[in-house]
Structure formats: structure tokens, C-alpha cells
């Protein structure tokens, strides 16, 4: 049908033409309907199905359609739900793979840093040779950032004897002591920790015999930090000639301090394996575990000293 391009008159013209055309079609349909009825009346009844049968079939079809419609809707909703769940599962799987890849990358990075750190401290005479100190401290901090154990004090890995591989502590290295009081390079310096039992022990071997320090440890809460700041500055020969920062130089300012840090109260100093001396109440310290795995521990003391230790036994060495 052609409609005028003039939008005002064209629309009216189109409406009138459509109306006349519709009336003509309705008239023709009425004639055809009358002829069909007459034809059906004269046909033998055997050739014509009863009118109610068609109605029943129509009603049945309508009923089936209405009954089937909810199924279609349900299937559509199920399909949508399936699509949503599929997307969710896919997202979860993708996230899991991404997390696993990230963990694998971190594990590889951690392993590489660990080997590099162990190599660097290997020739340092436990820190007496300070040539590689800058590099070691950098590796130390990088490895701390990849700590796989968020709650070291609750980990079974922490309990046991740990050998000191490197430290920045002059007093532990004995650099200011006379040679026969210093720890022997061919003998280990050991630290035993059992946070569950509240027990700690430091052990070193000198030409005159072993020096041993027995202590109590307990998880350190923020309100207890000042009470355990190290005050061993003038006590016995362990500090003789050592140039160290005062206690409290480093105090961890982290949440969950009691999960990583212990307060240390020294009880008895045994010199050369023969002379036990009761420690005063001021003999205290703070030790934080900043990295822990199966065989490597990194720690910081409240004087700012760093410690690299390797696990040698799950029990206290004799």
C-alpha cells in the first residue's frame, strides 16, 4: 500500500484505505462461512466428526499448552540458573587456578631467596665478617615478606633446637670478649624454643666450656612490651665489649603480636658448664619470629638485631 510522504494527510489516507479493505475482507469471509456451513449440512454424517469432539480436542490442546507453559518457564529459569551456576563455578575455578599459580610463584620466589640467603650467610662467620651484611639484610627483609607461617607460636615447626647461622648481635658473637671466652667457630650456637611449654635455652661452646642460659618465654601482648624490653646491658660477660643498641630499639607494632612474639625472662646463666648464676629480674628481652618454615627461622630482637637460624632437631640437644 502506498502512503503519502506528507505525515499529516498520509496517515489519514492510510487509515481510511485500511478500513475499507478490512470491511471487504470481512464480507467475503461471511459468504465463505455460509457456504461452508451449507456444505457440511449436506455431507453424510459418517464423513463429519461430531462437533463436540473437535471442541474437546481444542480444549485438551489448550489445557496441555497451559500445563506445558510453566514447564517452559521452569526450563528457562533452570537454564538461567544453570548459566548463573556455570558462571559462578567457572569464576571459582579460575580464581582457584589463579591463586594456585600465585602460590606456586611465591613458593618459587621464596625458595630462590632462601637459597641465596643461605649462600650469603655461609661465609660470614655467623656475622663476624660483615662484608655481605647489606645484601643479607635485603634478602632477610624480602624473605620476611613471603613468610608462609602467619602464626609461628602456634606452629609445631617452631619447637626444637635452632642453630645460629648469622646475626647482627655483637654480644652473641662475642666480638668484644677475650678469645678464650668467645664462641668457637667450629661449634654451633644453639637456641631451643618451646612456646607451648614456655621454655627457652641458649647454648654456646667456648674453649673453657659451654655457656648456657635458661629462660621462660610467653606470648607477648601489646600491653607487656615495655615490661620485657631487654635490660642486660651491664650483666656478666655476655655484654662485655659489645656495642649494641639499647633495649626497645625495635618493638613490633603489628596486630596479633602474641602470635609471633615472645617475652623472654632469663632465669639462670651457667658459665663454662660449672658456675650457675641466678639472673636478676631485669634480665629480660623480646624475640619476634618473622619467618618460619620447616628448617629456617628469621627473628628480630628488641635491640634491632637480626637472626638467621637453621633447625637441627625437634628436641633439645644435650
Automatic annotation (TrEMBL):
GO terms for cellular component: plastid. Keywords: Membrane, Plastid, Transmembrane, Transmembrane helix. It is found in: Plastid. Its main location: plastid. Pfam families: PAP_fibrillin. The chain crosses the membrane at residues 84-105. The keyword Kinase does not apply. Coiled coil: none annotated. InterPro entries: PAP, PAP/fibrillin_dom. Residues 112-193, 279-309 form the Plastid lipid-associated protein/fibrillin conserved domain. This is PAP4 protein. It comes from Symbiodinium pilosum (Dinoflagellate).
Amino acid at each position: 500500500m502506498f502512503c503519502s510522504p506528507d505525515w499529516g494527510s498520509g496517515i489519514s489516507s492510510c487509515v481510511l484505505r485500511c478500513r475499507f479493505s478490512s470491511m471487504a475482507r470481512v464480507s467475503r469471509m461471511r459468504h465463505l462461512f455460509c457456504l461452508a456451513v451449507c456444505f457440511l449440512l449436506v455431507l453424510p454424517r459418517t464423513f463429519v466428526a461430531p462437533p463436540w469432539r473437535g471442541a474437546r480436542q481444542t480444549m485438551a490442546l489448550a489445557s496441555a499448552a497451559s500445563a506445558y507453559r510453566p514447564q517452559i518457564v521452569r526450563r528457562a529459569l533452570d537454564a538461567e540458573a544453570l548459566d548463573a551456576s556455570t558462571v559462578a563455578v567457572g569464576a571459582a575455578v579460575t580464581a582457584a587456578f589463579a591463586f594456585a599459580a600465585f602460590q606456586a610463584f611465591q613458593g618459587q620466589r621464596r625458595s630462590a631467596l632462601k637459597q641465596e640467603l643461605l649462600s650469603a650467610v655461609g661465609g660470614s662467620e655467623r656475622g663476624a665478617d660483615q662484608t655481605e651484611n647489606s645484601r643479607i639484610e635485603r634478602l632477610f627483609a624480602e624473605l620476611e615478606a613471603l613468610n608462609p607461617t602467619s602464626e609461628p607460636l602456634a606452629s609445631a615447626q617452631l619447637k626444637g633446637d635452632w642453630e645460629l647461622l648469622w646475626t647482627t648481635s655483637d654480644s652473641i658473637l662475642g666480638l668484644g670478649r677475650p678469645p678464650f671466652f668467645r664462641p668457637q667457630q667450629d661449634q654451633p650456637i644453639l637456641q631451643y624454643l618451646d612456646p607451648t611449654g614456655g621454655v627457652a635455652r641458649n647454648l654456646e661452646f667456648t674453649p673453657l666450656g659451654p655457656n648456657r642460659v635458661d629462660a621462660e618465654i610467653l606470648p607477648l601482648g601489646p600491653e607487656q612490651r615495655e615490661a620485657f624490653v631487654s635490660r642486660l646491658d651491664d650483666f656478666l660477660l655476655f655484654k662485655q665489649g659489645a656495642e649494641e643498641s639499647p633495649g626497645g630499639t625495635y618493638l613490633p607494632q603489628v596486630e596479633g603480636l602474641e602470635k609471633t612474639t615472645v617475652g623472654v625472662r632469663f632465669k639462670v646463666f651457667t658459665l663454662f658448664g660449672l658456675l650457675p648464676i641466678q639472673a636478676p629480674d631485669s634480665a629480660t628481652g623480646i624475640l619476634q619470629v618473622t619467618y618460619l618454615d620447616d628448617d629456617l627461622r628469621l627473628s628480630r630482637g628488641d635491640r634491632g638485631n637480626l637472626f638467621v637460624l637453621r633447625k637441627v632437631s625437634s628436641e633439645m640437644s644435650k
